[in-house]
Design goal:
CATH topology of the largest domain: PH-domain like
Number of strands: 7
Radius of gyration: 20 Å
Largest sheet: 4 strands, antiparallel
Shape: extended
Strand order of the largest sheet: 1-2-3-4
Distance between the termini: 71 Å
Helix content: 25-40%
CATH class of the largest domain: Mainly Beta
Number of domains: 2
CATH architecture of the largest domain: Roll
Order of helices and strands: HEEEEEEEH
Structural class: alpha+beta
Strand content: 25-35%
């Protein structure tokens, strides 16, 4: 009786332990990638991304002192998408929401930056329905996060 209880206990421990191991391993790999990308875009320690937020495989980072913004998206099927912008060259930031046809279904949310010099605009995709694996499950959270960060970025540009 004691042997069978021990064997069942070991099997349950293994069944719980293996997914935990892979989850922790994946998390540490992503943290290492994020650190490496931030180091690459720090431009010889000019930018120090102190303010960061992570949600739904997206990382938003901001250097409020030197005005740099970094957006990393790990949802892409090929490789992570990294967007960097020096906010010193930007006049304004707004959100651009694209809907599907005549419906209210949101297919894309983008940060749209307008430059000071030539008034040209540049857009960074923040949410794409193609990358939402279960179909608009992350939309509400991502939309709220995008609104919050648009305000943070606009405050940083204004100061």
């Amino acid at each position: 009786m004691d042997t069978s209880v021990t064997i069942i206990g070991l099997i349950i421990t293994i069944l719980i332990g293996i997914p935990l191991f892979y989850a922790m391993r994946s998390n540490s790999i992503n943290k290492a990638k994020i650190k490496e990308i931030m180091k690459k875009f720090s431009q010889n320690n000019r930018f120090n991304f102190e303010k960061t937020e992570t949600q739904n495989k997206k990382v938003l980072a901001l250097d409020e002192k030197n005005k740099g913004f970094l957006l990393i998206d790990f949802n892409s099927k090929e490789k992570e998408v990294v967007n960097f912008i020096d906010l010193n060259t930007v006049d304004s930031c707004k959100l651009s929401v694209t809907t599907e046809g005549n419906s209210d279904t949101i297919v894309k949310i983008e940060f749209e930056f307008q430059y000071k010099k030539d008034k040209k605009t540049e857009s960074f995709a923040f949410y794409k329905i193609e990358n939402d694996q279960i179909g608009q499950v992350c939309l509400y959270e991502d939309h709220q996060l995008a609104k919050k960060w648009r305000e943070i970025i606009q405050d940083c540009i204004s100061s």
